[in-house]
Amino acid sequence: MSAYDPGKDGAKMSFAKDMSYVDYLSLDPILGSQNMQSTAHDEMLFIIQHQTSELWMRLALHELATAREKLVQGDFPSVFKMLTRVSRIFEQLNSAWDVLRTMTPSEYTAFRDDLGASSGFQSHQYRLIEFILGNRNQAMMKVHEHRTDLHQMLTQELQTKSLYHVALDALAAHLNIAFAPDSYKMDQPHAANDAIMQAWTLVYQDPAQHWTFYELAEKLVDLEDYFRRWRFNHVTTVERIIGFKRGTGGTAGVKYLRKMLEVELFPELWNMRGQL
Known about the structure:
By secondary structure, the protein is mostly helical. The protein has 12 helices and no strands. It has a single domain (41-275), classed as Up-down Bundle (Methane Monooxygenase Hydroxylase, Chain G, domain 1), CATH 1.20.58.480. The radius of gyration is 22 Å and the shape is globular. The chain starts with 20 loop residues before the first helix and ends in a 5-residue tail after the last helix.
């Protein structure tokens, strides 16, 4: 049997004058950006794990920013689609830890010193995701001061209502109520509020009457659920590979990551469940 020639079936085979797959995706710079600092075999895994995670976070930011705009406009179907997509993005990010966990402590030690002080702790995209979702800890801004463009991007986000703020504005308008101005702050992590919890409780007590906001609440809970799993998998992966050593960026490593597990993005949506 002769080899199949897709060109005979009409497939375009010459791209001397046309945009190709490699061109469209800018694959040359992407595939050429794994700049290893050592000769250790597993450093390639480590780099690609984090590069692909940053690409998924780039997409998550794209979806979250647009979802916030659509929520302001009252386009709930679009919001639901985008929040579902972000949840699936974090499912992909969760699966990536399984690949990194194939690296043993001995293999990581072979190149860890070559990382210098670089650390995922310094990811501005992860910080921006947290800020958009409402976990706005200004102490985290200092690590980005050396890059004025990134620092300004984060500063601008702190001056913008978070996705949850916008959801609460829509909820208040729907229920014809108003939350006190200090119920949620622009430049601080969101703290649980009784009035907000009671408002969400009303929605859950009569889903049929408040179906749109019932669905919005569940989409937010889904998103935080996947986000929490990502954090948990991060902790277990780090503990499996470096134990309780300090992180390369100077954090307390596992101890720091475990503190992050206690953070609640949408606390009222979790706390009100015990009242139903």
